[in-house]
Amino acid sequence: MSKFKKKKGGDLPAISTASLPDIVFMLLFFFMVATVMRDSTLMVSNTLPAADQVQKLDKKDRVMYIYAGKPSDRYQAKYGTQARIQLNDKFATVQDVGAFVLAERASKRQELQNVLTTALKVDGETNMGLITDIKQELRKVNALKINYTTRLGAYTQNFN
Amino acid sequence: MPKRSAPEVNAGSMADIAFLLLIFFLVTTTIETDSGINRKLPPIEDVVDPPIIKERNIFTVVVNKNNDLLVEEKPMNIKDLRAAAIAFLDNGGGKGEEACNFCQGEKDPSSSDNPDKAIISLKNDRETEYQVYIAVQNELVAAYNELRDREYLRLYPNDGITFTQADKIYSDPRTSPSTKEALKEKLNTVKLLFPQKLSEAEPSKTN
Questions:
Q1: What domains are defined for chain A?
Q2: Domain that holds residue B180
Q3: Partner B, chain A 105-124, Cβ-Cβ below 8 Å
Q4: Nearest Cα to B38, choosing from A99, A127, A102, A62?
Q5: Chain A contacts of B134, Cβ < 8 Å?
Q6: Of A15, A152, B157, B158, which is most buried, counting CB atoms within 10 Å of its CB?
Q7: Residues A49, A131: contact at Cβ < 8 Å?
Q8: Domains in chain B: how many in total?
Q9: A:B CB pairs within 8 Å
């Protein structure tokens, strides 16, 4: 039987993993450069409605975000299932929107203060009443440029 | 005693450390930029006497609390909205000074005089769903974009692009300032032909 015994030296040499760190570092640098830190955790469900006539919202330093929608599952016990507004990391009421916008505006550079856009990231199933109220508040503080943030898709996806 | 060479540092865990960092950045990354429908809200001011607008120049769109659409006092399916809005905007039924020389519509005297005069009025109930409202907005913007695309191609056939494409190039931060300057003028010309006059009803005080 020893006839069929493999020769000792015939084993495949182990693949060198010495270049693995290099590859991983390459990926790492890519993501480091491409990263924008998520600045707030979502506390509301946020399925954006679909639209296809959209414009891009470049230049993140000129945008402030207002989220709205039903509180997510783990907050529902405390806050109920009515749609609510989220500003930064807190639930807020409609009355807080004005103060939030003014504070955000004050924190931006002088030359950007007049070109700020308010991005409304609102869950598709929210009632328009809440959005109308937010829009009224925005008008009161003269933050007139708004963007209804959507995801790209045919409008028919909004009817189910 | 024989001189020992310094032991080599084991670099095997380097990959682990790099992976750890990599995963952290992967999780915190949001690469995609947001996109959406841009709108401008009207400033709050007391209009002493609102300008008188002829009924035929207003295209009323009402969305009720059951998400049904009422266009010009008739119920309508949303898939017909874009065509209806285009027909209204492009009608050009005006005569004399108000005539529209580039419109290709039916010149129906009971519809809008001129795209410059035509106003789309959008009204929604407090219980309308947001996604339906966005769908309606989307279709109305699409109507404007379609007409603007047509005019852009007619006026600047050599560019070989449509209005929406030109607008995308214009708002791209990588576009050079000289290209932007050239585009801006063309975009504004087309925008003046079909100005986006989309008015939203003030929220009613009752209810």
A1: 50-155 (3.30.420.270)
A2: 55-200
A3: 117, 119, 121-124
A4: A62
A5: 49-51, 124, 148, 150, 155, 158
A6: A152
A7: no
A8: 1
A9: 172
Q: What is chain A's Cα-based Rg?
A: 25
Neighboring chain A residues of B43 at a CB cutoff of 8 Å = 139, 142, 144
* pLDDT tens-digit readout, A4-24: 765 566 677 777 777 888 888
Q: Is the pLDDT of residue B187 over 70?
A: yes
For residue A145, the surrounding DSSP H or E stretch is strand A145-152
The C-alpha atoms of residue A52 and residue A79 are separated, in whole angstroms, by: 33
Q: pTM for this structure?
A: 0.77
Q: Hey, is the C-beta of B15 within 8 angstroms of any chain A C-beta? A: yes
From the list A155, A131, A1, the residue with the least C-alpha distance to B129 is A131
Q: Which two tokens stand for residue A47?
A: 């399925």
In a domain, B62, yes or no: yes
Residue B151, amino acid = E
Window 33-72 of A: residues touching B by CB (8 A cutoff) are 34-38, 49-60, 63
Those residues with Cβ within 8 angstroms of residue A47's Cβ, 6 or more apart along the chain or in another chain: A69, A123, A124, A125
Q: Flag whether B66 is in a domain.
A: yes
Residue B21 belongs to a domain: no
Decide if A32 touches B, using CB distance below 8 A.
yes
- CB within 8 Å: A129 and B127: yes
pLDDT value, residue B207: 45
Alpha carbon separation from B33 to A53, A58, B2, B155 (Å, rounded)? 15, 7, 64, 32
Q: What is the pLDDT of residues A84-130, one digit of tens each?
A: 898 888 888 889 888 999 998 898 888 888 888 899 999 988 888 88
Q: Which of B28, B33, B41 sits opposite A37 (nearest CB)?
A: B28
User: Given B28, B31, B38, which is nearest A55 (Cβ)?
Assistant: B38
